[in-house]
Amino acid sequence: MKTCPHCHIQVGGSAQYCPLCQNPLVGTPEPDRYPKVVPPARQASLFYRIAAFVLLGAAVICGVVDYIMIEGRHMHWSLLVLIGVVGVLMLLRALLRQGRNAPKLLFQILIGTSLIVTFADYYAGWNGIAIDAIVPILCSVTLVLNFIFAFVNRRFTENGLVYLLLNIVVGVVPYIGLTLRHSVRPPMAWVICLIISMITFLGLVIFKGRSLLAEFEKRLHL
């Protein structure tokens, strides 16, 4: 155990300086009595940096293979890989942030992922699979997850109800737009998404109507 020659106190562990006068300690150090604990925020930051290094490195390798090793005219698929990597890193960063509002996060993931897959479909030649299938499936999954989360998690606040309502709007508005634009019926995925949106809206009105109304009054300062 180390000793401070000025304060005449004994300090355990492997400290180098006295906690009172900040003078150097003398004596033989002893093993730390308590393990060193890394704060969760530092662990998350380290994990994010490692993931960013690995994913961006993979994107660079894909770019080299696409633009240098593959000759002739072809679709540069490495751009799609880069967009996917950026989307994954943005999603990972949002998930690692503490105190995040889960419904808000799900809504942001829905919007971001929909934009990424739509751009990827457009870049690949636009076969319509993003708008006709992937986006409505994402909307349906987000609606179901938020609706379940609203009734299972006690920490689900009125703020989350607003984002659940936004999810419902996202599920209904595209269906209306596709119906007005095309004479034929929209794809079945959008029909299913519309049904889920109507069911979740009824559930909100019946079970969470007062909380939702109170939240809107608070936001509109009524």
TrEMBL record:
InterPro entries: DUF6320. Signal peptide: none annotated. The keyword Membrane applies. The chain crosses the membrane at residues 46-70, 76-96, 105-123, 129-149, 161-182, 188-207. Keywords: Membrane, Transmembrane, Transmembrane helix. This is Zinc ribbon domain-containing protein. It comes from human gut metagenome. The lineage of its organism: unclassified sequences, metagenomes, organismal metagenomes.
